[in-house]
Design a protein that fits this description.
Number of helices: 11
Number of strands: 0
Order of helices and strands: HHHHHHHHHHH
Largest sheet: none
Length: 208
């Protein structure tokens, strides 16, 4: 079953992932144009963009564990998933800057200092920016081993991003906590690999 699925995935073009990644944005634009948002449209736009970024971040994190645990090979799509995540994170930040803050830079700085969840969000975005900028073959060749170390920032970025979401909601909701739990599980799996503990019986762990 997995082999057949991997065969189908090998035939799936990467552009199809990009096309699928545009669907949440298209739905958001449609809801905005047709009045399908809630009583606070700006909040809904920001939150939907942020949640979508986090979902694609979770999908990016899951690629390696799925390969190691289930032999499901999604490695061809990992870069696209990561860049789609960054695109939604950028739109999320831009929506906050434009719609919420109205380009009031001084007010933005005061809010960031005053609200810790904004600090978490900005730190997560800075890490994702570093990953996006170096997600190309030139950077891989130029940075060498450093590239692999740099791209481990995806794990603290994910934790900071979900904490930003949970804290911004100001209430303990089940779904954000479930996403946080999933990210922590993926982080623990990654730490096991880095520690040399195999995820698959009979094999020793390795980085990657």
């Amino acid at each position: 079953m997995i082999q057949r699925l991997n065969g189908w995935l090998r035939r799936l073009p990467v552009w199809a992932v990009w096309l699928g990644g545009m669907i949440p944005l298209a739905l958001l634009v449609w809801d905005t144009m047709t009045g399908g948002l809630g009583v606070d449209p700006v909040r809904d736009i920001e939150h939907r963009l942020g949640r979508t970024a986090l979902y694609f971040l979770l999908a990016t994190l899951a690629v390696t564990p799925l390969l190691r645990l289930m032999r499901l090979n999604l490695m061809r799509f990992r870069q696209a998933l990561g860049l789609i995540c960054f695109a939604y994170a950028s739109c999320h930040l831009l929506a906050w800057v434009v719609f919420d803050m109205g380009f009031l830079w001084a007010q933005m700085l005061r809010d960031i200092v005053k609200r810790p969840y904004l600090v978490f969000g900005m730190l997560a975005f800075a890490m994702l920016l570093a990953l996006a900028v170096t997600s190309n073959r030139f950077s891989i060749r130029r940075l060498g081993v450093t590239w692999r170390v740099l791209h481990r920032l995806i794990y603290p970025a994910a934790v900071l991003a979900v904490l930003h979401w949970v804290w911004a909601l100001k209430v303990w909701e089940a779904w954000p906590l479930a996403i946080l739990g999933a990210i922590l599980v993926l982080l623990c799996l990654r730490l096991r690999v880095l520690a040399g503990i195999s995820l698959v019986p009979g094999r020793s762990g390795s980085g990657g």
